[in-house]
Amino acid sequence: MRRWHPAGTAPSPVAGRRIAAEPGRSQRTLAAELGVVPSRVVALIDPLDRKGLIERRRIETDRRNHELHLTAEGGKLLGRLAHIALAHEHDMFTGLTDDEYEQLATVLDKLVKAKEMTPGVHPGYRMPR
Fold it and tell me: Cα(58)–Cα(81) distance, rounded to whole angstroms?
């Protein structure tokens, strides 16, 4: 977790990654993708908005909803986080051969599918069933 601190963010940049993947998405679609109630998304994106990392834009056809966009600063932060994540991954898996790494990835993918998890989203964000 300490690796994230130099980037000045909490250890879970999930909302920023999802917004970057689909600029202009609404808070509702983000909530649905993460499997959380919309109020949880507000709690995730409010700090990003306050820091100037994302911006909310009113949807012209539906004033009740906002489009979410990464700002230039948010894009820079995601780039730094990607670099940190790659360094962490390298440190974690240095002892594995390429074949062992592929086996591990296959088993983890199987677990994600079996548990009906959203790839790239921590299960702690899911709503209880």
Answer: 28
